[in-house]
Structure formats: C-alpha cells, structure tokens
Amino acid sequence: MAKCIQFSRIGGSEVLELVDVTPADPGPGEVRVKNQAVGLNFIDIYFRTGLYPAPSLPSGLGTEGAGLVDAVGAGVSHLKPGDRVAYAQGPLGAYAQYHVLPADKAVVLPDTVDVETAAACMLKGLTVQYLLRQTFPLKGGETILFHAAAGGVGSIACQWARALGVKLIGTVSSPEKAALAERNGAWATIDYTRENLVDRVRELTQGEMCDVVYDSVGKDTWELSLDCLKPRALMVSFGNASGPVDGVNIGILNKKGSLFATRPSLNGYADTRERLEMMARDLFAVLESGEVKIDIAQRYPLEEVGKAQDALQGRRTTGSTILIP
Ligand SMILES: NC(=O)c1ccc[n+]([C@@H]2O[C@H](COP(=O)([O-])OP(=O)(O)OC[C@H]3O[C@@H](n4cnc5c(N)ncnc54)[C@H](OP(=O)(O)O)[C@@H]3O)[C@@H](O)[C@H]2O)c1
Hints:
The two termini are 13 Å apart. This protein has helices at residues 42-49, 115-135, 152-164, 175-183, 197-204, 222-226, 251-255, 266-269, 273-288, 305-313, and strands at residues 2-7, 17-21, 30-39, 59-60, 65-72, 84-87, 98-102, 106-108, 143-146, 167-172, 188-191, 210-215, 229-237, 260-262, 296-301, 320-324. The protein has ten helices and 16 strands. Helix 2 (115-135) packs across helix 9. The strands form three sheets. Strands 3, 5, 6, 7, 8, 15 and 16 form a seven-stranded mixed beta sheet that branches. It has a six-stranded parallel beta sheet with strand order 11-10-9-12-13-14, with helices on both faces. It has a three-stranded antiparallel beta sheet with strand order 2-1-4, with no helix packed on it. The mean pLDDT is 98. It is α/β, with parallel strands linked by helices. It has two domains: 2-121 and 295-324, Quinone Oxidoreductase, Chain A, domain 1 (Alpha-Beta Complex); 140-263, NAD(P)-binding Rossmann-like Domain (Rossmann fold), CATH 3.40.50.720. The protein is globular. The structure holds NADP nicotinamide-adenine-dinucleotide phosphate. The site of NADP nicotinamide-adenine-dinucleotide phosphate has 29 residues, from helix 1, helix 2, helix 3 and helix 10.
C-alpha cells in the first residue's frame, strides 16, 4: 500500500484526505514514478476549489514531482527503472508516494539537479522558460512588469530576467517580499498594498511604460496591468490567483493603446516530448550555470498538504514549496 492525497468534493483545504492505495501498474506508454519530492502549485488550488474541474471525483491532486522510475509500461523505450526523473504535467495525482503518468511527460534529470530542486522548479521553471523565451522572446534591454515577484514562478523569473539583461519590475505585498525579489534580481519592486502601481511604473520608466506585463494575479490586476504597457505592447495573462479574468470586451485593447494580449499555459507550450525536452534543457542550463537558484522556502510532509495549500493561498509563502511523500 502507498500514501496519496485525494479529494471527493470541491472546497477548502479540509477536503484533502490522506488515503492508502495500491499503486497502479503503468499501462502502454506510461511510467510509474516513486516520488521523492512533490511540487506545490497554485493550479492545485484551482482544481481543489473547482475553478478548473477535475475530470472525475474522487480525484488525486498535483501535477509536479520528481523521483525514481519504478516501472515502465509497454512501448516505453526512453526510460527504465532507476532513472531519476521529474515531471510537471499529466494526470492529477502527483501528491502521492507513487504516480503513474504518460512517459512522454517525464524528463531524465542531469546529475547536477537534485530531486528536491527538480520538484520545486519543473512546473514553475518551465513556465518561466516559455514566458520569457517564447511567449515574448526577450533579447535584453526590455522593461517588463512581473506580478507576484517573490512567489514560486516570480522568484525564478526575477533571476532569469536578470540573466537576460531585462529590467524586471516586480510587484509584491510586503517590504520583506520586495527585498527578496530585489535580491533575486528584480530591477525595481512595487508594493501595491502601499503604492499606486501605474504611477510607480510611469515614474520608474520615465513615462515609457513596459514592453510586456506578465500577470498571474488575474481579476484584481487585469485593467491596471494594461495601463502599465507601452502602445502596441504585450499583455500576458497567465494565472488567476485573485480570480479569473472573464467578460472582457476586446475593444479595451484598442482603448489602452492597440495592445496585444495572450493567455498561455505550460501545456500549450510543452505539448510534445521534443518541445518539453527543449524547454527542460534550457531550464537545466540556467540552473547549472548558477544564473537561477531555486529557493525551497517551505517543506511539508505530504500529510500536511492542507496547511501548505493554506499558506500558498494566504500569500504567506515565498519561493517554492515542496511536499515530502
Ligand atoms: N499559465 C501557466 O502556465 C502557469 C504556470 C504556473 C503558474 N501559473 C500561475 O502563476 C501564479 C504563481 O504561481 P505559484 O504557484 O508560483 O504561486 P506564488 O506566486 O508562489 O503565490 C501566489 C502569489 O500571488 C500573489 N497574489 C496576489 N493576489 C493574490 C490573491 N488574491 N490570493 C493569493 N495570492 C495572491 C501573492 O503574492 P503577493 O503577496 O506578493 O501579492 C502570492 O504569494 C499563479 O497564478 C499560477 O496560477 C500559471
């Protein structure tokens, strides 16, 4: 038997239950991973609260983890038992000691990346890879606004932007988070609980405003974010921490300066094994060069996942959080 977290109804963290299950065998094209560390992400909260519907209930939860390949299904040739791997996509159920997923979603780890680091950055780091390198291929010299700059995705984005020579203005909700984002390479920070976001961006950019805004806060910041852009610049809305952006009249993009807008996801970018491996190589390269360091600021035993999710949702975390199964 093995431990895993399940939920049978949507709701608060109290719906998360620790259960004993017999680990499933991998089917054709699948692999079973013995998780050594599991990543905690905001998307897990969207599934628990029903913003994103789970395919069925009861359901497992979590999509990110790292550990050892334990068994492979028929037709899998690029992985074998004992391989150290990490994954960030695939069926819900990574909050577990064993997880079965499509083999194409698992990437072999280089010796230089330990499993805890991998679990802490596979989803968040691959997200930053596509945001900064693909959605808008930053060349250096641009000014960007990145919300939640002290969080899991934000901490990686600050460091990667610095490595690319990009001026990242990060938003945060406290002086401690501002200091952390600046240590990670943010060119400037704005504490939007005390400062006017748009005025501060205007001041910092001497009226020029930003080339790109990366907004994962969603509902609360959508319009403010548009006001931080240069004419014809790009709005990247990639999350819903404060609720989803809906009911948008596309005419607002004209009104705010002939803007572009996109709503991307990791699954939309890492949609083939080749693309996933290309993105993972890019992520591992910045880890190996030391340009990006992963800050595992919170660790919880698997059974304390409810506490971990409450801290993430309550804005009490910084950097990455992992669960130890
Ligand atoms: N589209 C994609 O492919 C993709 C992939 C990964 C993550 N994401 C998104 O990126 C965001 C960051 O994910 P993460 O796991 O790294 O989380 P995180 O940034 O560590 O935590 C979320 C942060 O958002 C800020 N926030 C602002 N308003 C909030 C609210 N009403 N409730 C809670 N937090 C709020 C808080 O920072 P302050 O206290 O500093 O405001 C909080 O710490 C999430 O929105 C997630 O959905 C999207």
